[in-house]
Amino acid sequence: MSVGRTVQSIVSAGKAALQSQIADTRQLIYSSPATLAYNSPGAEGYGVKRAGLAIPGSIMLIVSPGCCGRNTSALSERPEYRGRFYYLTMDETDLITGRHLTKIPEAVEEVVAFLSEKPSVVMICITCVDALLGTDMERVCRKAEEAVGIPVRPCYMYALTREGRRPPMVHVRQSLYSLLEEKQRQVDGVNLLGYFGGVDRSSEIFELLNAVGVRQIRQIAECQNMEAFQEMAAANFNLVLNPEALPAAEDLHKRLGIPFIQMNRLYQIDKIASQYQALGQALGVTFKIASSQEKAKAAMNKLVKRTAGWTYAVGEVADANPFELSLALIRAGCEVQAVYGTAAAEYWPWLEKLSALKPALKIYDNADPQMVRYVPEDGGPVIAIGEDTAYYYRGRVNTAVVPWRGKTQPFGFEGVIKLTQAVCEAVDRVEKKGVVA
Amino acid sequence: MKGLRKVLTPFAPDQSGAVSILYALGGAVIIVDAGGCTGNICGFDEPRFESEPAAVFSAGLRDMDAILGRDQLLVDKAVGIAETLRPKFVALVGTPVPAVIGTDLKSLCRLIEKQSGVPAFAVETNGFKLYDVGCEQAYLALFKKFCTNRPHAAPKGIGILGATPFDCDTDALGAFLKAHPAYTAVGWTSGLETLVKAAAAERNIVVAPDGLKAAKWLNAHFDVPYTLRDPMAAQFAELVPDVSGKRILAVHQQVALDSARKVWLDRGASSVTGATWFMRLKALEQPGDLRLTEEDDFERAVDAGGYDIIAADPMLKPLAKHFTGQWIDWPHFAVSGKRLNPHE
To answer: Coiled coil where (chain A) (predicted)?
Structure first.
């Protein structure tokens, strides 16, 4: 078993091989700094704990063995989360008797009484232990809700079900949006669902929607309070920008009658244009995208020229799908040498295209146990996109590091432009140091 | 309410303690979890994770593994890694999931060892206990597995047992080891050979209660004497000004408390009450010492004690609302999860 495989060998093995590997987790998962976001979404980025507190004024009671809540102390340090996490620590007797469940309503009451201001929502976060015990947390939450008179909702930090049909990050979105109550529909309202940090307001999507009369564009990240969040129930439709929010959108469709349209974050300029055209057709409007598209093309052309002689290593711990971004770069004329990411079945169309364009492209699975000894080969100057890639190439003077990971999310043509700017700036920094001619 | 935390965050769990002892020894450490526990350990509790990555893996358990009890799959994964990486050992570290489904980790280790030829052992932590229990279990598992013969060489050097990132300030420990080359911190200094050094040491010092059982075992099997003493805690105590005539409440692990107490009493402190959330050793306990379990325990101790000085992790400060005396920060990573330099 060697580290990394060519994209051609992955595609030759067929789509079914990818599916079985992911579903069965036939290998151990290497825990490296590069895979931390996979192993513990709570440790970095948005995991269940952060996501569960997306509603302003909400608090969370983590009901679990002490180990599950341990790294939350890092999160509690951030001003926006201070005083919002509470813990009901289970012991071994709780595990055997399930008595912790009867304590939850009382614990919620005690926490609410402890606070100077009543929270908007109490999220009850439970973990793998309760997944195995088969706890009916919806029922427990209803009891707690009766006790305190404010909404109490469950969120499931079940790492065991990560590759299941309802993984934790899907369920937490369903739980949050279940709080929306029916409202008079606003014809000019839309919700952008999918990103807890929200879409970067500089994205052209806002201007394009405004131009066709959609003026109330709401995102959970921008809601200042519970009332503002409830305004999301007035949307005429939802735009789902991350597949993890799809079941929540389906729920809202069923429950409140809000239809939804799915879009993806892409970096291939022609595909972004096609996506806007499809959205326009669905809404019965025409988006004027020519100017934004031209700017993105110009930025990409500039990038290709600026980074001639450099090769790219593209990682998955970034605000991009590494396979789609690599495809975008290769199609534009950039030299991509490696992709760090799990080649899952849902990425098959991109993998096939990559295989056709660059069969020798190396794909490294960050979680592969072999990666414990992985060191990239020495070569020419490298542009490392993503925090995982940055880790592998750390300390190398001829590497331009572009973490490309932020709280607000890049989207559309503007996302392409910003990425090209970030890469050019990183290359400038390295060249200024004089280590790359 | 018992178990409810409104101010403090959960303390370091047993599985983190176990991994901290095994981390630097060149083995393959397999945390038998779904991934979250591994992330907690590597991404939070293990300071060497960023600078010295080690072969620490998650078993990647999924719901069907737990429901169907697919132990053979775990054995296959572990054998695969043992044959590929040829680590010095394979260690299975327990978490709540195997505890709930009753996985027999010891039996799995026997299978792994038999099939791969690599020594394998289990540390049966469960995520419900505290770090010191995990450290204690890991030490014993290691010594029982690898220190099977009496060393031939004459006793040499001094072993440190109980030195982990949870109790020791890493910089202070590093400085101590540099200044005292005869000392070797077992589990901190890289390599399995450090274990053998503890078995062949002139003596061992135990700097935290979790090292005591291992010290006793080494004493019973190889006649290595030991003492309970934390020189880093003593150094810290020396730096606290104006303790003469003062009533002090100190909160930490018990060996550190004892070492600091001796210094403060020597310097004229009126009294030193030791309080701990963790393992307690009868040998070090003094009348009036306190066992802490809930947040209220600490609040009550502060309110009732009439102390002039409290030396404790700063995370406890909000619980001492009515305290008007002098607060001395004495960081304890196992409590707060914060790495602070007490000398700053």
So the answer is: none
CB contact under 8 A, A86 and B5: yes
Residues of B in contact with A65 (CB under 8 A): 13, 96, 126-128
pLDDT tens digits, A315-370: 999 999 999 999 999 999 999 999 999 898 889 999 999 999 999 999 999 888 88
Check CB contact under 8 Å for A88 and B101: no
In angstroms, the separation between the Cα of residue B26 and the nearest Cα of chain A is 12
Mean pLDDT of chain B: 93
- For the domain spanning A5-30+288-432, the CATH number is 3.40.50
> Buried b vs exposed e over B298-337: b needs ≥16 C-beta within 10 Å?
bbebbeebebbbbbbbbbbeebbeebebbebbbbbbbbbb
Chain A positions touching B84 (Cβ under 8 A) are 1, 369-370
Chain B residues closer than 8 Å to A155 by CB = none
DSSP state at residue A213:
T
CA distance B302 to chain A (A): 20
* A388-427 core/surface letters (b: 16 or more CB in 10 A; e: else): bbbbbbeebebbbbbbbbeebbbbbbbbbbbbbebbbebb
Burial class (CB in 10 A: 0-12, 13-18, 19+), A264: middle
pLDDT at A411: 98
The predicted structure's pLDDT at residue A19: 63
Write out residues in chain A with pLDDT < 70, as ranges: 1-2, 19-25, 35-45, 163-164, 435-437
Question: Could you say which architecture CATH assigns to the domain A189-263?
Answer: 3-Layer(aba) Sandwich (3.40)
User: Does A21 lie at the interface with B, CB-CB under 8 angstroms?
Assistant: no
Q: Where are the domains positioned within chain A?
A: 5-30+288-432, 46-177, 189-263
Residue ranges and CATH numbers for the domains of chain B are: 14-146 (3.40.50.1980), 158-231 (3.40.50.1980), 232-336 (3.40.50.1980)
Question: Is the ipTM here above 0.85?
Answer: yes
Q: Which of residues 180-199 of A touch B (CB under 8 A)?
A: none
Q: Looking at domain A46-177, which of 3.30.1380.10, 3.40.50.1980, 3.40.50.720, 3.30.70.120 is its CATH number?
A: 3.40.50.1980
Q: Do domains A5-30+288-432 and A189-263 have the same CATH topology?
A: yes
In sequence order, the 6+-apart residues with CB closer than 8 A to the CB of A30 are A366, A367, A368, A369, A370, A371, A372, B55, B56, B57
CB A404 within 8 A of CB A383: no
Contact of A129 with chain B, judged by CB distance below 8 Å, is answered with yes
